[in-house]
Backbone:
């Protein structure tokens, strides 16, 4: 007999299941990635199709509008059933089901059905690949040797996805057309699913470890990473994150660093570290881009220019709960209505390069209404020093309305109370601006500081109508505030916008004050709209008269009411009187967003009988 064919009696038998599990641990994480990539491609394709259809429909609608405008007189559109509107009715029904039907968890945690579907699909996919084919060759089902190690491999494979979703320069945002802040929900959801998966992996191993195993470097770094991940998940829970955001911010940075380092050394020992080290490149590239933009837009500060002091921001304490920040627009900085910027204030933050996101309430010079004079920088600075920050052209500066809470914003409010200026470094813009150019009617709904978003959108629509870039013919601006004095925040800007607004657009500004003197409000309303000659004398003694310049009261388009608005009735009325394309953009509390979603659950029959195609954009406070 050939001696090479003999088996050494000292070699332990090879477990045939080990080769199977090793192959599964290698192939299944790749299959999960193919699933994720396919879903991203599907979403991107749907977004592109939606964009293409809107462009084509806008062109046809524009041609029809020109024909209608040439006809003498106008008659109200008659709604009739049309089979050709079935595709549009199906699209509207999809919008209602996916984005306006919601699942409420607690008082302030809301998910639409699209988010619920993505969450369930991701969980089902992850755990299907985790527990499929876990029967041993001997017939034992759900064998721990099959799914224990696989949980770690699949969990580690999702780290690059979680990292990408958490970055501000998010490549998936540009591919799918979904802004980084909305993708942040998917970032948190995926992280929590992977957290559970990694504890499945850790628990399956810890249960069979002998005490001596804890002395191994491989085991120690794995446990350290898992503990860091556990701390991160706890501090990222919404109640904790909302109350102590700065603590969450620092803890997030530190625990993620520990998690990735521990995960890399732990997985690299099993030759799957290739899933973890790209996370450092993704994070590093995002930070490099942000630093580069920070230097580019704020080079006058970094260059120690003699004019650097001109960039210092003025801070106004509008009320105990709100601060307004004015910054001279950095060179080369451009943005679209509704976008955000990250502000770094070394004199306010505890860490010099701590950045916080805020919506830009002003609009770029590209959206400057015709008739606004643009002064030279020197003249502007002289005017500012003599007349205050409100004299600065709204199109020549960055304006932020900031809600005062704890930590960073509270320290900023204290600086505003002293009348001091602050050094601000601007990074941005981030997010996507909703395209309202193809909408016949645009409704903007805001609550409190949510006016930062809707005010810039309001100015953007007027500018595009004036430049013939928008087909909007009716613009409705709804704002709910606690006190009448809050109207001062936007009074001069609204006044100037109404003075320069194109004549071929119908404007309605409805402001609702939820507290204050109801009789005074009613008196102001009566005098301001019915007795033009007595505007100044009649309104100066009222709450509203003191809250805004009397010139704003001259405009019949402006209506101020006492109490909370009936948003449901208001939106349903807009749906009833419109036949074209209607968009509703909301920025406010969860309650406001929930009311708007409920009011716009339009049945398919409305669209089939000639009703409007309704699009809803929600920028809600504290969103999931």
Residues:
């Amino acid at each position: 007999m050939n001696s090479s064919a003999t088996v050494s009696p000292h070699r332990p038998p090879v477990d045939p299941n080990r080769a199977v599990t090793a192959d599964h641990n290698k192939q299944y994480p790749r299959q999960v990635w193919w699933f994720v990539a396919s879903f991203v491609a599907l979403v991107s394709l749907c977004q592109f199709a939606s964009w293409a259809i809107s462009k084509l429909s806008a062109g046809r609608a524009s041609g029809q509008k020109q024909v209608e405008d040439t006809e003498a007189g106008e008659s109200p559109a008659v709604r009739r059933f049309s089979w050709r509107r079935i595709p549009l009715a199906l699209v509207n029904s999809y919008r209602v089901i996916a984005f306006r039907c919601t699942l409420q968890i607690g008082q302030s945690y809301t998910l639409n059905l699209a988010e619920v579907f993505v969450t369930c699909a991701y969980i089902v996919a992850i755990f299907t690949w985790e527990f499929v084919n876990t029967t041993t060759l001997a017939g034992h089902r759900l064998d721990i040797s099959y799914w224990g190690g696989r949980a770690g491999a699949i969990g580690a494979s999702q780290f690059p996805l979680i990292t990408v979703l958490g970055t501000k320069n998010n490549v998936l945002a540009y591919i799918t057309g979904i802004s980084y802040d909305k993708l942040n929900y998917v970032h948190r959801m995926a992280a929590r699913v992977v957290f559970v998966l990694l504890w499945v992996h850790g628990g399956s191993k810890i249960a069979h470890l002998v005490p001596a195993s804890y002395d191994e470097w491989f085991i120690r770094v794995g446990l350290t990473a898992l503990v860091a991940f556990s701390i991160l998940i706890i501090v990222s829970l919404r109640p904790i994150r909302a109350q102590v955001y700065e603590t969450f911010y620092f803890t997030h940075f530190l625990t993620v660093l520990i998690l990735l380092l521990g995960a890399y050394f732990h997985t690299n020992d099993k030759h799957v570290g290739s899933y973890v080290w790209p996370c450092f490149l993704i994070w590093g590239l995002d930070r490099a881009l942000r630093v580069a933009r920070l230097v580019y837009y704020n080079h006058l500060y970094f260059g120690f220019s003699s004019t650097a002091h001109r960039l210092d921001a003025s801070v106004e304490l509008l009320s105990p709960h709100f601060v307004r920040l004015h910054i001279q627009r950095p060179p080369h900085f451009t943005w679209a209505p509704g976008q955000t910027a990250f502000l770094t204030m070394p004199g306010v933050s505890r860490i010099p390069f701590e950045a916080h996101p805020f919506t830009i309430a002003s609009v770029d010079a590209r959206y400057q209404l015709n008739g606004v004079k643009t002064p030279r920088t020197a003249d502007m600075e002289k005017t500012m020093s003599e007349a205050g920050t409100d004299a600065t052209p709204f199109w020549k500066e960055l304006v932020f309305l900031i809600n005062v809470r704890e930590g960073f914003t509270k320290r900023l409010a204290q600086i505003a109370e002293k009348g001091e200026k602050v050094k601000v470094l601007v990074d941005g813009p981030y997010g996507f601006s909703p395209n309202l150019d193809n909408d016949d009617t645009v409704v903007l709904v805001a609550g409190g500081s949510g006016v930062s978003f809707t005010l810039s959108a309001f100015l953007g629509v007027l500018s595009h109508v004036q430049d013939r870039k928008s087909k909007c013919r009716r613009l409705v601006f709804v704002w709910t505030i606690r006190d009448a004095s809050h109207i001062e925040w936007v009074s001069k800007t609204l006044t100037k916008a109404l003075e320069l607004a194109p004549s071929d657009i119908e404007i309605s500004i409805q402001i609702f004050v939820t507290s204050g003197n109801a009789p005074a409000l009613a008196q102001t309303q009566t005098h301001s709209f019915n007795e033009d000659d007595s505007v100044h004398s009649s309104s100066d003694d009222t709450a509203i008269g003191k809250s805004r310049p009397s010139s704003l009261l001259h405009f019949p388009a402006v209506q101020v009411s006492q109490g909370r608005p009936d948003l449901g009735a208001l939106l349903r009325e807009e749906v009833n009187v419109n036949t074209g394309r209607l968009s509703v953009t909301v920025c406010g509390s969860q309650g406001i967003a929930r009311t708007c979603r409920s009011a716009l659950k339009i049945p398919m029959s409305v669209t089939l009988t000639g009703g409007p195609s309704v699009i809803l954009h929600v920028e809600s406070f504290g969103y999931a």
About this structure: The chain has 22 helices and 15 strands.
